[in-house]
Amino acid sequence: MNPQIRYSEEQALLRGEARRWLDERFPIARVRELAESEAGEDPLDWKQLAGLGWLGLVVPESFGGAQLGATDLAVLMEETGRRLLPSPLLPSTLAALALVTDGSDAQRKRFLPAIAAGEIRAVYAGSASVWGASSADALIVPRGGGLEIVERSSGGLETAPEIVLDRTRRSARVTRNGVALGADAPSDRLAAMACLALAAEMAGGADALLALTCAYAATREQFGKPIGSFQAVKHPLVNVLIGVESLRSLVYAAATAFDANSPDAETLARMAKALACDVYVFAASRAVQLHGGYGFTLDCDAHLYLKRAQASRPAFGDAMAQRRWLADRLPGAAPL
Amino acid sequence: METLRADVRAWIAENHPGEPGFKLPQSALEVADDRQFDWLRDWQRKLYDAGYVGAEWPREYGGRGRERGAQRVIDQELARARAPFLLNLVGLSWAGPVILRYGTEAQKRRLIAPLLRADEIWCQGFSEPGAGSDLASLRAKAVRAGDAFQIDGHKVWTTLGRYADWCILLARTDPDAVKHAGISYFLAPMKIPGVEVLPLVKMTGEGGFNQVIWTDARIPADALLGREGQGWEIATATLQFERGAAEGSAGGSGGGGEQVGRVAALARALARDADPVVRDRLADFWIRETALRANAQRARVAGLLSDRPEALPLMQKLTASELTQALADFACELEGDAAGLWIDDPGAIENADWQRSYMNSFAMTIAGGTSEILRNILGERALGLPKTR
């Protein structure tokens, strides 16, 4: 496989805009505040996301969206991952992707413009535990190759908030008329796009952890020297660096493949998700470890990312599941 | 470019030399006997005459003056067809690029064309006993004597030293200057009085490395590359070529990066490909190999490097060599009992190629900056961590 990577001036602009806004709007103190709040998010943020056009990022122009590609999606998700964005942008974007990929014309027409405008909150629901379900107006459920849309207004829908490890991303247990919500497997394309979006978000989080830990290692002194000068500290950080940079390369290779309709897109996206699981958890574990006793406390920011990493791992297949999928398609080996 | 790719493919199909009937070394680092040397020299000449060596280098010096990226396409196709490697490794990938960057017009006209055609072989005189990774502590001396320099010193790990016509040689011209400042860079002839080459034997039993002893060896003054005292700067540039952190090779370095398919085929041949543990490991290797290729791609995309511009170029040699080593190790493990057999035993798998690969892979994790040194450099330059003392 010869991965290609394309990245334009427009994407660089989107990154700059996203980073500036997220830095300003979500300093870590505010992320902590929202994480400790009952709802876990601020409705004002949602309005602003709509205003920025991010709710319709992947929605076609004919339905009122920005109709941007997979590379733009990767850029945006990576930046939100850096800031642990405490808002259901990801499940909402996955809902929009599901509609674009697998929805019927009628479903698209009714929901996509409203999602892009921020009028209806739709979230993707692949199982009974759903990200962003508590504040959602509609759940987008994969069903028999297409989608079923469950609206709160139709009655019978119950969402019970879960007690979660990662309080920057909320989920709820969903039942309809007392029965747990079930879903069929998503289409290959949708699953792969979800892997890409999530892997990009995880890359941003891992990169933020690396910066956080390096800053600490450069200033914290022991034995009269900054700990970052010790190879026992420096080398694991370089291993994190190698993981993060390799992950970003796979994310952008997968995104480029989607935008070019390359047959390698799904393979690359699943590779990215597999690597993201390993790299994000490793980056977070090294962050806690290298911050020492302080790293083990609630005061240090490292645990916020560690919890996001652990909670993101199972979604759309953990590293082991992705490698199982990849092993059936290895070059040089017959599939089982 | 696609026309070029098709041309190269067609040419290789016609001209692939196949197996020579004796065991070839796995890279230019192990070339140790005349039979291997002559066969590989013929191959490089053939490739050069076809226009596939020095594809992007200037025409006036013997290159082909093609557009940027042409050599990469050629190298990819050669690697894909598992064509033999190019013999004149040091010349094509390290000496040539620095001569093009720092050399005088006369040096370029004299040295480049014979290097491309393997008419003249190059070696590298950087390492010394006791000064491996600490390159700046080198002790070889060059003393000006009229229109010549007199060289005295002891170099080690000199790949192709036995066959070399030329050496990119680092020597101290100013013993009083602080460590880096007194070093100069020479394009030194090898086949002169006062140069003695002593072969070293590797743990595989193969040769390829040598020690070179310089005793009162006189080289002409115009063998100096750049200015006196500029040696450290040019050595740093050479290492960037050697580590793949800068592009410039005249060919033959596009190999690697397609090993997982071979190991998967090995697992299949050994009927271990249904084992879930084996499958999981293979998939993991496939991810790492693909990431390596994606990293090389992304290194060319300026907008995706802006946060940490030095990381990807500096990572390449480190990650490629460690993946090669881990894969060869895994392949040996897959072989089971046969992993203990060596070349020419009838029970050896692929004539013990993986065992040999595994051992030879240490040359890559040690030479051109050990993995440990490269981690220090990455930590300091790409992550801004304080220097390790």
Describe the overall structure.
The complex is a heterodimer of chains A (336) and B (389). Chain A is α+β, with helices and mostly antiparallel strands and 336 residues long. Chain A has helices spanning 9-25, 28-36, 43-52, 70-82, 89-102, 105-117, 188-219, 231-259, 265-290, 292-295, 302-312, 319-327, and strands at 122-124, 129-131, 138-143, 146-151, 157-161, 171-176, 179-180, 221-222, 225-226. Chain A contains twelve helices and nine strands. In chain A, a hairpin with a 2-residue loop joins strand 6 and strand 7 (179-180). In chain A, helix 1 (9-25) packs parallel to helix 4 (70-82), helix 7 runs antiparallel to helix 8 (231-259) and helix 7 (188-219) runs parallel beside helix 9. Chain A starts with 8 loop residues before the first helix and ends in a 9-residue tail after the last helix. With 389 residues, chain B is an alpha+beta fold. Helices cover 42% and strands 13% of the residues of chain B. Chain B has helices at residues 2-15, 34-49, 70-80, 89-102, 105-116, 231-242, 260-269, 276-298, 311-334, 353-366, 371-382, and strands at 122-125, 141-145, 148-155, 166-172, 183-189, 195-199, 210-220, 224-225. In chain B, helix 8 (276-298) packs antiparallel against helix 9 (311-334) and helix 9 (311-334) runs antiparallel to helix 11. The mean pLDDT of chain B is 93. The chains are: A alpha+beta (336), B alpha+beta (389).
Write out key terms for the chains shown.
heterodimer; A: 336 residues; alpha+beta; 4-stranded antiparallel sheet; 3-stranded mixed sheet; globular; B: 389 residues; 8 strands; 42% helix
Distance between the termini of chain A: 21 Å
What is the straight-line distance between the termini of chain B?
A: 48 Å
Q: Kindly name the structural category of chain A.
A: alpha+beta
Question: What structural category do the secondary elements of chain B indicate?
Answer: alpha+beta
Q: Unreliable segments of chain B (pLDDT under 50, ≥5 consecutive)?
A: none
